Amino acid sequence: MTAFYYLLGVVIFVVAILASIGLHELGHMIPAKKFGGKVTQYFIGFGPTVWSKQVGETEYGVKAIPLGGYVKIVGMLPPGAHELADEVVVDAAGNTVTRVRKSNTGMFTQLISDARAAEWELVGPEDNDRLFYKLASWKKIVVMAGGPTVNLLIAFFIFWGVFATYGQQTAEVATGAPVISTVSECVIPFTEEGRKCTADDPPSPAFEAGLRPGDQVTTFNGVAVTGWDQLRDLIRDNAAGDATIAYVRDGQQLNGTTSTTVEARPTSETDETLREVGFLGVTPELEIITTTGGPLYTLDQMGDMTVETVKALATLPVKVFDVAQAIVGLEERDPLGPVSIVGGGRLAGETVSSDQFPVAEKAVFLLMLIAGFNFFIGMFNFLPLLPLDGGHIASAAWEWVRRGIARLRRRPDPGYVDAAKLLPIAYVVASAMLVMGVVLIIGDLVVPLSLEG
């Protein structure tokens, strides 16, 4: 049954992501058609076509590689200024077809020219008023923003449902005299945290003093301890001095003596600057606080997520490089690092098949995993880089601003922004995305993240 539940978790996650992709593409297609644009293809996936059906002027289908999707909107790229004269030609059968003359004056120019030619090859004169590039700038922004906005809405409604019912659980230090949760058996430098003790590591002061999990610290060097923050400050300020610690174990008052050691540790939970402080080697017992909330609470939480996601996007190439190093065994994989849809599927499978969580927690984990992927996909697609949706949004926004300035200054209309000129950058970005995607997928197969760490 474990294998069955694992497979069930993977299937649920994959189906949910594919549904999200489909809704993302609907977010582009529906407004495009509403504004009079011509959509010739709507596909989920890439690569060879598995299934398709023609409905009206649009072909709907599924492709073999479920790592994305697309809609084909006619006339995304405007013709180049030197190519306008060749827009309409008559083919061998006597049909009038709109084409663009190719240019071969340089590698990038050829790339741009080829892209225009492919874009315009099947455009007929009847499509002249339905070309995407001719839409009003605000309409183009709505069409391109529709996809990632759908992902953010999916995330919002899932988060809202979870926060309003199950709530958001956070671990906070229990109030009162601190109860010890863990005792380090040895002193491990902060920069090496996570590894196991070795014979070369000195024993921790807490371990030498006889402290164990469950002990409640009452005094430190004769000072009554009323909370964890106070105890932490006393330990840090003690540097490498002697320490007498009174604690309660199973209702019995006990004492231990040791000497704290000096270690480089973060200044605080919010400031990761390292400084030399006294170190004992204990962590406090935590209590789970459950907070519930509605749409405003959800928006507030998503605001915090946005800040963290922007930070993650800024360091994404570095994080992916770390995954590449983990693949070849040069370092351990960061448990908080990025994962692909393969890694998400594995985590979903492990969750559903695990005996450690009740059904409610499994459902919440799956929902939060799906919402998290949608939130990241939405944020990622808003990056102002082609070929992402944000790149098209930025082009349309600049076109809108440029035309507005021209009207205010009573200057001639500067015309459409030619996104085709940015295609060389788009190819570089697309290549980088492909490489990062492949690295993450290989990482999720070779050095996968696990619920057990």
UniProtKB/TrEMBL annotation:
Molecular function GO terms recorded: metalloendopeptidase activity
Compartments reported by the entry: Membrane
Domain Peptidase M50: 13-406
Pfam families: PDZ_6, Peptidase_M50
Keywords attached to this entry: Hydrolase, Membrane, Metalloprotease, Protease, Transmembrane, Transmembrane helix, Zinc
Keyword presence, Membrane: yes
GO CC term (a single one): membrane
UniProt keyword annotation of Transmembrane helix present: yes
Source superkingdom: Bacteria
InterPro entries: PDZ_6, PDZ_sf, Pept_M50_Zn, Peptidase_M50
Cofactor(s), names only, from the UniProt record: Zn(2+)
Name of the protein described by the UniProt record: Membrane-associated protease RseP, regulator of RpoE activity
